[in-house]
Amino acid sequence: MNLEKLEDAVRAIVAEIDQSEFIYQLLRAYDQPKASITRLKNGQYNQSKNDGEVLWKKKLCFRHEPDGDLHGCIDRLKSDNNVTKHAPRFIIVTDFETLLALDTKTDDTIDTPVKNLAEHFDFFLPWAGMEKSQIQSESLADNDVKTDEDRHALNIFLSRLLAEALVYLRNKKRQMRRSEEE
Description:
- This protein is an alpha+beta fold.
- It has two domains: 136 residues, no CATH class; 41 residues.
- The chain is built from seven helices and five strands.
- A five-stranded mixed sheet has the order 1-2-3-4-5, covered by helices on one side.
- α1 runs antiparallel to α2.
């Protein structure tokens, strides 16, 4: 999965929100099978009987809460027996202005304006089979790289470091040959 394409896909979803399709579009962006999403939409996989709520076993509990307390709602859902017996990885609550999400495996949370969800696209990567430890190991060199300018500066630094190391090794090799000849 290309992380830049995923981030762009999430950005496109929140740019023009279709409330009735939002959660299904989000699942599709993370490469969930189309057939499974169709079955979820049709109610075959949806374990919830409540309007505005989607409960997919071991995947998610999503609730659209148009005029309520989002924090109170997510607290109720995480202790609701009907939700917990299906062990969703994520509990998501939104009014389509703000989005709250809980990763039930790691207890990580996000509380963000929906329009900024793309900045947190990595939160839902477990849907794509990528746990956070895998992501961190892929980007150790980029931990402090925040902008394209920083990334460019890091690339230049590493290129120069590599070039200097090669020059050093070449000179060392020459010195060793000279000492052998003597």
